Amino acid sequence: MGQRTDWRQLRDRRMEEPGAEEAYEAARLAFELGKTVREMREANGWTQTQLAAAAGMTQPAVARFEAGGTTPTIPVLERLAHALGAELVVRLAPPDSAA
């Protein structure tokens, strides 16, 4: 039998592949955006169906977004922000020099 690989070794090997860091960062950002929308929706006491109706979306689209399963467009983010009574702020900033 071949040598077993633990999760860290597999992850490290995959992260060395071209484009892996960018894909990982995109997935992290999608997850964080989805988490924020879910938290705001829950703070309003809304269901996904209620948010979907207010944002002109379907409930499955809201569910995928909240799970971090999609990379949203700016118009989708604007609709969600408007429905939640929030302001959409998009900015570019220089990288943190401490990182």
UniProtKB/TrEMBL annotation:
Its lineage opens with: Bacteria, Bacillati, Actinomycetota, Actinomycetes, Pseudonocardiales
Any signal peptide, and if so, which residues? none
What is the protein's species of origin?
A: Amycolatopsis suaedae
Indicate yes or no for the key word Secreted. Answer: no
Q: Which GO terms describe its cellular component?
A: cytosol
Q: What is this protein called?
A: XRE family transcriptional regulator
* GO molecular function per UniProt: DNA binding; DNA-binding transcription factor activity
What start-end ranges are recorded for coiled-coil regions in this protein? none
Domain HTH cro/C1-type residue range list: 37-91
Record keywords, A-Z: DNA-binding
